Amino acid sequence: MSNLTHAAALSELIDAGARILDVRWKLGRTDGRDAYLAGHIPGAVYVDIETELSRHGRPDEGRHPFPSTGQVQEAVRRWGVNAGDVVVAYDDAGGVPAARAWWILRQGGVDVRVLDGGWQAWQTSGGAVETGDVVPEPGDVVLSDISGDSLTIDEAAALAASGILLDVRAPERFRGEVEPMDPIAGHIPGAVNLPTTVHVDERGMLREPDALRRTFAERGITDGVAVGAYCGSGITAAHTALVLAEIGIDAKLFHGSWSQWSNTPGRPVATGD
């Protein structure tokens, strides 16, 4: 399956019946749906990360607990996705929110891609824009188990010692200098910092594969190395998994991420580089 598509090819996919998902979301922002209603790719359905790609949970499960397969299947059917459909997700934040949808649907067996460059790339290409809400006929897709490549908190701790566990947050959060969201600053002992933002250019487009391979190789990540990723609450890490998939490397995700780790009594905390 392809992981990315481009604005130039998206019109053909739409004409062929692809289902388009608008996953505009940013931490602390509440106007994703408002932006969608004001203008979106024709036929796109709005997807709410907070309620459809996450579930409510306890603090020690993290800020965006991973949803169940059943919960996601209900949502995907509401989006009008049928068995065999191609799905394209996009956002306006460098592919990070859309990657959450990509990860979950890919795990569930859906042919899903992320629009490289997102909403900005679509507008720059002169793509048509539609306003208002889209409410499709319910779909019939059946998802496979979406949790197969997820790491528990204990598995994440073990991977930091036996493989490479990437912390994809900003360096100052990794070092423990600031922590705007969670109760303790720092990182999981043994983790390696590589912010996912370094993988995209100023247009929000993914960098060339050779450049990506060099960046990961500098952190010791090459073919055959066991690798996992975490972030603040499990959203951003999916983008790093998407980038790795583009260069042929499989990764696992610790969805509880730092928000779960820092809310779990007794877990050690590291600071600095």
Task: Describe it.
By secondary structure, the protein is of the alpha/beta class. Helix content is 32%, strand content 11%. The chain is built from eleven helices and nine strands. It has a five-stranded parallel beta sheet with strand order 1-5-4-2-3. Strand 2, helix 2 and strand 3 form a beta-alpha-beta unit. Helix 5 packs across helix 10. The mean pLDDT is 95.
Helix percent reads 25-40%
Q: How many strand elements?
A: 9
What is the helix tally?
11
Give the strand line-up of the largest sheet. 1-5-4-2-3
- How many strands, which pairing sense, and closed or not: the largest β-sheet? 5 strands, parallel
Structural class, from secondary structure content? alpha/beta
Please state the overall shape, judged from the principal axes of the Cα atoms. globular
Low-confidence stretches: none
SSE order in H/E notation? EHEHEHHEHEHHEHEHEHEH
Radius of gyration: 18 Å
Distance between the termini: 37 Å
Summarize, please.
The protein has 273 residues and is α/β, with parallel strands linked by helices.
SSE topology:
Elements: E1 4-5, H1 7-15, E2 19-22, H2 32-38, E3 45-46, H3 49-52, H4 69-78, E4 86-90, H5 96-107, E5 111-115, H6 118-124, H7 153-162, E6 164-167, H8 171-174, E7 192-193, H9 209-217, E8 227-230, H10 237-246, E9 252-253, H11 257-261
Parallel strand pairs: 1-5, 2-3, 2-4, 4-5, 6-7, 6-8, 8-9
Supply the key terms.
273 residues; four-stranded parallel sheet; 11 helices; globular
